[in-house]
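One thing: can you check what follows?
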Amino acid sequence: MVAARDIGLLAAQVLVEGPSANHVSVIDLESPREVAPRDVAEAAARVLGRAVEAEFAPDSAMESALVGFGFSADVARHMRALTVGINSGKVGWENRGEKHVRGTTDVETVVRALLGAKK
């Protein structure tokens, strides 16, 4: 998971630097460290000061939930396939970009902002 802040900072940097002559760059961006759902739950527990556990829904429930959130059935089907691929290890990080960047925003900072919590 990459924080939106890190995506925005990198995008701004690339726009300011401008393109290189007749060359398309690929930049791999990832979080400061790998983040799993349990890491997000642990960060939420620290921010809220109470126990928080990650709950995993069955893959079969994903499509209908996404459609319920307003996604098209086609996008929901593809999101489910992507998630199943990531969770099974069939889809993963390729690290094929010419430049590799790690963001600086940790998961607790993101959770704190999403929950509107102060430090």
